[in-house]
Design a protein that fits this description.
By secondary structure, this protein is an alpha+beta fold. Helix content is 40%, strand content 11%.
Length: 183
């Protein structure tokens, strides 16, 4: 899954800090705090007064820690899970799922083409190690044993799920979805 804090920093920009318990918060405008509030997650004091950060709070971006200039923007380290984070096909049927700021139709179309490519690659090669070659692409913690033990079936099931979800999202028949993806 995507690192929600890194995504928020990219979208909102501005300056981000952490409370003493590590919960992130955002300061707009000049990026320096002008009031003391309570952390929405744990209730400790956050912010500061007169553009001075409370001593117990820290910058989210360690590279700008202690920088008291105005207008400094946080750059977040993205801690998203590595590899292709794909759950079991039966858990991936939501038509409104999106990732990396992509709308659901774009997200599902890209996934359809990725999964179709993987299925076709298994059919187009005579490589006996294909299963092991593609297994390393998947985050095993997410996908479970099915992806490791029978990758081709795993990809085929995802391909069928992607097709079904695309039909729902587009409100079109099999023929119409096929024509739309072909053009």
């Amino acid at each position: 899954p995507e690192d929600a804090t890194a995504m928020a920093v990219r979208v909102l920009g501005g300056r981000w800090y952490k409370c003493p318990n590590g919960h992130s918060y955002y300061v707009d405008q000049c990026g320096r705090p002008t009031q003391v509030l309570k952390c929405a997650t744990c209730g400790v004091d956050i912010g500061g007064t007169d553009h001075n950060l409370l001593a117990t709070n820290k910058d989210l971006d360690e590279n700008i820690e202690g920088n008291t200039d105005y207008g400094v923007r946080t750059k977040a380290k993205d801690s998203s899970e590595p590899n292709y984070c794909l759950r079991k096909p039966e858990e991936e049927k939501s038509p409104f799922e999106a990732a990396r700021e992509q709308p659901p139709i774009i997200h599902r179309t890209m996934r359809f083409f990725i999964h179709a490519t993987l299925v076709l690659s298994s059919l187009a090669t005579n490589d006996r190690n294909w299963d092991r070659s593609v297994a390393v692409l998947i985050n095993q913690d997410y996908a479970g044993e099915a992806a490791k033990n029978d990758p081709l079936s795993f990809w085929l099931e995802h391909l069928a799920t992607d097709w079904s979800v695309l039909k729902t999202l587009l409100r079109r028949s099999d023929d119409d979805v096929g024509l739309l993806l072909h053009e």
